[in-house]
């Protein structure tokens, strides 16, 4: 009898969840790119040029123009779109694999592993090479394009490959894997928990959340990861920003970078950029989930009944 119930239980296809993530990623990138630029500049500022988030933003605008706050938007938007497509799709596939064969239910352990696996996959396939290009573009200062080393995303990628080899695009892969794996394990688990606590919505009940409800759940779910993974994000940025073409590298790897930053700059430096990350990631998750939940909800209303979200 249990087997029959399991066979009749419908789920939203993985490709629909992937599509919902990609459209949510486009919206997030366009809205929140300036905060990401400011976060990167603060993390790379060793001379104390910027006094804080507002000062950094106004300094960039005054010296480089308003458009500088959207530097790296093309790789950032492309990266977010591909990342969310892979994240949402792979998480759905992994969740299906971890579900109980008899009941079709997903345990908390299975949800955590699914999120971590999706985060690791997106870090290796999408996030690392795109963020290397984005950070190299964002760290450039100046108004005159002819004075900049990198003229654009494609030119930047070609220069990195020419000067540092193809592996140069995967600089900082280790901390990126740790950051994204932990982030997604926490995010998917927290989103499901907040949906249940706040809105009494549970997988398989067919209840559709309003956009504002999805935004609140997504915002809250996006807060835990940045606090836990701050050091990985700082180390990732430092490793990605250093060029192998300039001679000996300051940081030899993830653990060496953590030790060097701690010794030279103090423990608090490992959480540099936490506030702008909290200004960007939770709102980003709010925007993404508002879009994603509506798309999967439309599919459910149009083609299914009692689908598992």
Describe this structure as you would to a colleague.
It contains twelve helices and no strands. With 309 residues, the chain is an all-alpha fold. The N terminus is likely disordered.
H and E string? HHHHHHHHHHHH
Fraction of residues in β-strands? under 5%
The number of helices is: 12
Which residues sit in consecutive blocks of at least 5 with pLDDT less than 50? 1-8
Radius of gyration (CA) equals: 21 Å
Sheet with the most strands, sense and barrel status: none
Mean pLDDT: 86
Tell me the helix content: 55-70%
Shape: globular
Structural class category = mainly alpha
Annotation keywords:
309 residues; mainly alpha; globular; disordered N terminus
Topology diagram in text:
Layout: H1 2-8, H2 14-44, H3 53-64, H4 73-98, H5 108-138, H6 153-164, H7 173-199, H8 211-221, H9 224-228, H10 230-241, H11 254-265, H12 274-303
Helix pairs in contact: 2-3, 2-4, 2-12, 4-5, 5-6, 5-7, 7-8, 7-10, 8-12, 10-11
